[in-house]
Every structure is written in structure tokens, then in C-alpha cells.
Amino acid sequence: MAASGVVSGKSLIVSFGEMLIDFVPTVSGVSLAEAPGFLKAPGGAPANVAIAVARLGGKASFVGKLGDDEFGRMLADILKQNGVSDEGILFDQGARTALAFVTLRADGEREFMFYRNPSADMLLKPEELNLDLIRSARVFHYGSISLIVEPCRSAHLKAMEVAKDAGALLSYDPNLRLPLWPSADEARKQILSIWDKADIVKVSDVELEFLTGSDKVDDETAMKLWRPNFTLLLVTLGEKGSRYYTKKFHGSVDAFHVNTVDTTGAGDSFVGALLSKIVDEPSILEDESKLREVLRFANACGAITTTKKGAIPALPTEADALALINGA
């Protein structure tokens, strides 16, 4: 364990799902066809969250499958170099590591074209899971891309069940990527199929509209996604900050205004920051003033992540986030 730079003495956050390589155009505001060249940017929301946690001084592990190819080995090395435990990583001999070509529009938003037919992450089987690692998680975090196809879907459901039975807090960020789903209806159905299992759910304003069918991003719409067993529901609003809903209170926290270059990984950075703060002190979720302070920290982390291209290089340290908070 010590060899991979993992922090001891803190509670473990296990992040489950896909890790892939985004190919990002060297020039912003052009289509894929017009792009003169591409840079490799390691990513995948659950992997980004694990690295976000580790960069903030937390203890993180990633569970997922990579291709037994140069890109897969590169991604495993990136996790290790960033202090994320690699005990949950598997390599598939027969399938490649997933790739995505990403268009950065002039406003910093993204469009995706995926190469996954099938990719290694989709082939993770329930019997391949490191159940001891999953049982040792204090927080178990996941998305919805791992629900799209079998056998990964069954592995996802099994991992969630094992983590829950072992007493972990379940954290869910659907991270909607419509091009990967057979249809919008199927995406909505499957994303919501595990909705009531989570303790903490984070959605973006776009996901809120997609899942509820509403064109309003307000408290009433957000409460359509609330479930009685939730501890915390979060709606991120980009430059408008974030909103929070618990059993006893709800409110909003303003964003930090920065020079946005690329929004990739901002939501993952936000989630990693939140989880890193609550994993050892879950009582924060019951205390509104403490929760607001943590969400301000998470907003700062999300904002900093938009100031550089790519997710992983842009993820902040605690000192980076505090500098933005104290300078604001």
C-alpha cells in the first residue's frame, strides 16, 4: 500500500466505474474534423473523483477495468502517480481502453464522440470485483455509464450492494453522456433505476432538466428527485454555484468567478472535495453552517478546475482552494 503513495489513517473513498482517454483538440472552438491535432487527456468521471480526493489529501481507490494495452497501463500509472490505490484495477486482454474525442466549443462546453465497442471498462464482471476493498470503503462513489451494458451493469449493482451492506455512504453522480446510451428514454430509465439506493446524489442543472422533464431549475423541480432515504441532494449550476437539499434544510452557495477555459472535470472536482471533507466527519451533513462551508470549498475546487485544459492536471490541492476562498 505505502508504495503507491496512499494516505493512511484516513477513511477510504472508493470510486467505481470507467477511466478513459479524452483526445482534446489543440485548438478550442473547432469541430473534430477541423481540429489540427489532439492532446491525450486522461479522464473518466469516477477516476477523476478518485484523483480529486487524493490531491486534496484524502485516501482514494479506483475500481474498474482497463485494456491490457499501452493506454490502459498509462492510466493505471496516472492513478498511482496521483496517490490513488490500484488494488481495484483489472486489465482485460481482449478489449481496448475506452477513448473519447472531445470538441471544446468556444464557450468551454464539450461535445463527445466515443470509441467503446466494447471497451475494457464495459467487461468488468461481478466475480472479478475486489470485495474486500469495496467493503473497506467509508464512501462508495459511482456514476451511470457503468449501468449501460452487461456484464459491467451487474458488477456495478453487486459493488453497490456490498458497499451498502458494509455500512458505506453511497454517492451517485449520474454524469449523463447521452451519446453512450441506446436512447434518451433508456438513459433516463436506467439512471433512475438505482436512484433510491444512494445517500448522496449530485446532478447538474442539465441533468436535473433531463431527469425531471422540466425546463425549470428551481427548488420544486429539484424536489422531484428527492427520496426519503437521501442524506443530501446537490444541484450544481456552473457559474451560478450550487444548491443543497437535506431532510431539514436547503439553500444555495454562490460560485467563484474565474477565467473558464475548459469545464472538463469541474463536477468531479466538486464531488471529490465534498466527499474528502465528509468521509471522516459525516455529521457535517446534519449541520447547515458546516455543510455550507464544505460546499463553498467544493465550489472553489470546481471553479479552479475550469481554469486549465483537461481534468486531472487542473484538479486543485487544498492550498489552491483555500487561496481562492481567502482571496475572494
TrEMBL record:
Q: Please give the InterPro entries that the UniProt record associates with this protein.
A: Carboh/pur_kinase_PfkB_CS, PfkB_Carbo_kinase, PfkB_dom, Ribo/fructo_kinase, Ribokinase-like
Give the CC-aspect GO terms. Answer: cytosol
Q: What class of enzyme is it?
A: transferase
Question: What organism is listed for this UniProt entry?
Answer: Hibiscus syriacus (Rose of Sharon)
EC number in record: 2.7.1.4
Q: What is catalysed by this protein?
A: D-fructose + ATP = D-fructose 6-phosphate + ADP + H(+)
Stated family:
Belongs to the carbohydrate kinase PfkB family.
- One of the record's GO molecular function terms: ATP binding
Query: In what residue span(s) does the Carbohydrate kinase PfkB domain sit?
Result: 11-317
Q: Which UniProt keywords apply?
A: ATP-binding, Carbohydrate metabolism, Kinase, Nucleotide-binding, Transferase
Q: Does the keyword Kinase apply?
A: yes
Q: Say what the protein does.
A: May play an important role in maintaining the flux of carbon towards starch formation.
Decide whether keyword Signal is in the record.
no
Write the protein's name: fructokinase
